[in-house]
Amino acid sequence: MPPDISTRKSAGGRPRGDPAAVRNATIGVRVSAGEYATLRAKAAQMHMTPAQWLREAALARRLPSPPVAAINREQYAELARLAANLNQLTRLANEGGRVKVADALLRRMTIEAKRLRLALLGIGEAGEDR
Known about the structure:
Elements: H1 33-45, H2 50-60, H3 70-94, H4 103-121
C-alpha cells in the first residue's frame, strides 16, 4: 500500500523564495588588493560578505545630484535676475509705495518665465518665445 500523501516527507532542502527576489544578474568590479582588504574588513564589521556589504552600500546610499548642464546654469542665472527685479517691485508695493507696471512688461515677463521653465526642462529652444 502506498504511503499517505499527507504523511509523506518533504524532499528537504531550502524552501523556495520569492521568484521576484532572485538575484540572477552579476556586476563585475575590479579592485586592488588594498581595496579588497578594506572591503572585507568593512563587511566583516557588519557580519556580511563583501558582496552583501557592497550591495547594501550601493543601494542604500544617496548619491550626489548629477551636474547641472551649462544651459541650465545660464537660464537659472537669468531667472534669478528676473526674480530679483520682481521681488524689488513686490517689496515696494508691500511697503505702500506706488508700483506701476506696464501691461506689455507683464506680458513679456510671463513669456520669459514660460520660456525659462521650458529651457530648464530641456523643452524647446532657449531663445524661442512661447
